[in-house]
Amino acid sequence: MVRETKYYDLLDVAPDCSEADLKKAYRKKALRLHPDKGGDPELFKEVSHAYEVLSDPQKRSIYDARGEAGLSESGGMGGMDPQAGDLFSQLFGGAGGFFGGGGGRPQGPRKTKDLVHRVHVTLEELYKGKTTKLALTRNILCSKCKGKGGKDGAVRSCPGCNGRGVKIIMRQMGPMIQQIQTACDDCSGTGEYINPRDRCGSCKGKKVIPDKKMLEVHIDKGMKGGQTVVFRGESDQSPTAEPGDVVIVVEEKPHDRFRRQENDLITEVEIDLLTTLAGGQFAIKHLDDRALVVQVHPGDITKHGDVKVIHGQGMPSQRHHEPGDMYVKINVKFPEAIDAALVPLLERALPPRTPIEKYGKDTALEEVTLDDADTRSKSSFKFAQGAPGEDAMDEDTDEPRVQCANQ
Description:
Pfam families: DnaJ, DnaJ_C, DnaJ_CXXCXGXG. The protein is of the alpha+beta class.
């Protein structure tokens, strides 16, 4: 028995899986979730972290016995650098991208942390495409000292930590001695020290200064919530590392009339009883500057709760902009009252009434009337949507399930 299954669930494997199964599952999920392939950067980091723990026998045994808390208690054994990408490179080759050879740990320079921003867009903007501007503040190398922090030769190794950037503190707890590693206070963990009088007047010895930059973000037609737009090398600059990336995460706002399922659109319309029986027209306002006029032919009965489809009026695919379909659920609006003088005309046009059920001689028939009911105070009253015996359109019944083609 394992204490937690979160890491196994992230990789879609059983807690008793083999090392080969773990590696196979990580390869599959990493390829699909990698940011370079349009995946979710945060989920990719979580999956990589789960594999990093479970692929190490010692860490896996601690996790199985005590969960994430056990890893933390063991000195942060569950931690990893999400920017390094070591696990991914070991499996797919650091020098050759996704399928390149070479293997091993990447030998390239360290990068600064990626800057992640979220852009909230409407379904209309995802349908038509959009270009928006994003202002961000990042650090760039100080132009006055060229990223040195002060005069030439002013930078010295920190005497407080001997240039390591960290200090080791020994703390005795009863018979045990605990080693604690903390960032050096003298150099703020940089390992370098600059005399105050020799520091750069512009950056105050920090080597970088804040800078505002405007980015144009192109939201392509058909993009989905969770997809990313990446600006390479536009993150913070550092004299000791290459700049990371700016990652723009697209967030789709809820829509008041449409719901999206892959490249299909789902909506509901209300039409009157006469149109459903005798034909007519109704319109659906689309996501652009069009309204779709739907013709209901006389005699083509449309029932309450029916789901119809309009082909080619869904969301465009991102690659070729080929549209999906639009699914329309019909809600029939019944009249509040009918003139009794017109009932004979209805009897001529509609099928005959269904006779009441016949009962045995021992059943007494008693006539009653139906009155309007006030169920506002009846909190336990719940009725199924739609007519009796008719399934409601929800995620578990009649909602269209469409297998979209690979883009």
